[in-house]
């Protein structure tokens, strides 16, 4: 046997392609179901990379390495752009194509994506109700539970503001991290000072604009999702049990960094 990694490693073995490429199991014999599976698997791989970057970003903010965060958050927003573009590939699926295999999906739905919720939780959009869709003891459950109970990127950004000398109340700095975040006038006032005096606060200002890029890209992805869903299933109810398009429209106003949006009115 050849144990020397410089000659024994192959493209396929390095990337574990045997497993990756044998993980597509259409439940019907319809041609278009393969596209549906590949689109979703690709999206889960990108979400895995986004989670990897967001954890690093959170640790870097905690360590006051605000310049180093750029690379990671820029990568996240570029991946989000690719994910948004991939809706155009899915939109080649016509309503009739999709309805021919929709039944096999049962009650499964993107609503149950543990990694999607983990991204929301890492950014700061917390809703512990989503834990119940993950099986206790599964990797999805443990990742989501950890992100729920730890400070989000936005909580870490507030802590960084406090270390920089901004007075923030205890309900921001020592909150129960698992609770939904409530926008704070003191946080908005601190970021407003950063935006009004950018040369003094440049690293914080650049961090804020990188965070806005990520929030912006998330909203753009959500918007393209709802448009594509309306194009494919109209106003049918969702397999996951929601009203469908009206539910998805109600998520468009979700923001991970609300004060970075509200402060713009004051400038
Ligand atoms: C034919 C294509 C699709 C249709 C008709 C569709 C439809 C829906 C509907 C109706 C919901 C609301 C939950 C429910 O009741 O099921 C939903 C949620 C969701 N879908 Fe899709 N979807 C499609 C493709 C995708 C793709 C390709 C992705 C990811 C790349 C995705 C990710 C999600 C996520 C993450 C949610 C949860 C959103 C939230 O709660 O904020 N969906 N989808
Ligand atoms: N919620 C979709 C079904 C769906 O899209 C779906 C089903 C299984 C796995 C991933 C899915 N994608 C996103 O919701 C529907 O109502 O048709």
Automatic annotation (TrEMBL):
The protein's Enzyme Commission number: 1.13.11.11
Family indicated by similarity: Belongs to the tryptophan 2,3-dioxygenase family.
PANTHER family found in the cross-reference section: TRYPTOPHAN 2,3-DIOXYGENASE
Biological role: Heme-dependent dioxygenase that catalyzes the oxidative cleavage of the L-tryptophan (L-Trp) pyrrole ring and converts L-tryptophan to N-formyl-L-kynurenine. Catalyzes the oxidative cleavage of the indole moiety.
Protein name: Tryptophan 2,3-dioxygenase
Biological or metabolic pathway of the protein: Amino-acid degradation; L-tryptophan degradation via kynurenine pathway; L-kynurenine from L-tryptophan: step 1/2
UniProt catalytic activity: L-tryptophan + O2 = N-formyl-L-kynurenine
HAMAP family: T23O (MF_01972)
Residues where substrate binds: 36-40, 98, 102, 239
Gene: kynA
Pfam family, one: Trp_dioxygenase
SUPFAM superfamilies: Indolic compounds 2,3-dioxygenase-like (SSF140959)
